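Researcher: Sequence recovery benchmark, item below. Answer with residues only.
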């Protein structure tokens, strides 16, 4: 049966498999996965195609270029990234017009040594590192479509199959503390500073989602598809998606109150499912409010004369 060319996910997966096969043909490539929204089955017309490549040895620029040359209309061959310990080939397949560069389907092929992938996996599942980038690697390993290295990928998946309770605790300790929430009142009083108000509310919503992912034993991946992320949260405040959207659209005091209630409900869930967390401390920090001073301190303090 042919590929449904009207299904944006189906033809992206088929194209990803073809490009992945070109990587898999290299003898120094040990593993290849199609990752991202394509592997999860809900890519749309704006989605790129993500590939995760495991190298046994560092590739040369020449072989990286040769692998993608048959597909790439426009290629950006990124140098080795020391911080991420990866190589990346960004390229476009096709063009919407012959004279319009960088207008086709974007492919992002991220390559790492298998030893680096193994170490990042161990950081998360064995050393319980709450770093979000490392968790996206683990999520890709679990949910990607394997094209090469079934045994190796299977071993990685076995190690990550149970979300460690210690990681959930580390996540909540890292992201569950919400400081200075009441500052929205100051920002509102200082000329209706919506920039900082919405920035703060958005940050709190992100922290709330990270805490809920931890409670649910879900390795983090980016919130590009928020409805899908929320649908995976069996343990969550009711009507979470609608309430989060409401925070972004309500007037500021109503949004603040809606968000306050959501955070308190999330803390209730932490208390119920991770009792080793000091939730009383988290509540105290979240509820704290700095009081304004309309006059100088009492006279027992040094004179201001």
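Model:
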């Amino acid at each position: 049966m042919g590929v449904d060319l009207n299904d944006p996910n189906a033809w992206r997966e088929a194209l990803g498999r073809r490009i992945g096969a070109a990587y898999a043909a290299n003898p120094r490539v040990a593993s290849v996965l199609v990752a991202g929204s394509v592997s999860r089955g809900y890519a749309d017309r704006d989605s790129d195609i993500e590939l995760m490549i495991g190298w046994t040895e560092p590739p040369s620029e020449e072989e990286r270029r040769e692998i993608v040359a048959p597909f790439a209309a426009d290629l950006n061959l990124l140098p080795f990234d020391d911080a991420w310990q990866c190589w990346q080939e960004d390229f476009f397949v096709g063009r919407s017009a012959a004279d319009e560069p960088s207008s086709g389907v974007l492919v992002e092929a991220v390559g790492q040594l298998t030893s680096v992938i193994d170490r990042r996996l161990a950081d998360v599942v064995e050393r319980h590192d709450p770093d979000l980038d490392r968790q996206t690697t683990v999520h890709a390993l679990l949910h990607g479509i394997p094209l090469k290295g079934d045994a190796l990928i299977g071993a990685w998946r076995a190690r990550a199959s149970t979300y460690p309770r210690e990681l959930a605790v580390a996540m909540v300790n890292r992201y569950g503390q919400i400081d200075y929430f009441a500052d929205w009142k100051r920002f509102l009083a200082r000329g209706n500073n919506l920039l900082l108000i919405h920035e703060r509310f958005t940050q709190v919503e992100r922290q709330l989602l990270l805490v809920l992912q931890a409670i649910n034993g879900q390795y983090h991946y980016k919130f590009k598809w928020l409805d899908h992320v929320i649908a995976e949260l069996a343990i969550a405040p009711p009507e979470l998606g609608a309430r989060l959207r409401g925070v972004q659209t309500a007037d500021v005091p109503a949004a603040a109150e809606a968000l306050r209630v959501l955070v308190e409900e999330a803390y209730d869930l932490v208390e119920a499912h991770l009792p080793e967390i000091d939730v009383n401390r988290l509540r105290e920090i979240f509820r704290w409010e700095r009081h304004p001073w309309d006059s100088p301190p009492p006279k027992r303090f040094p004179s201001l004369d």
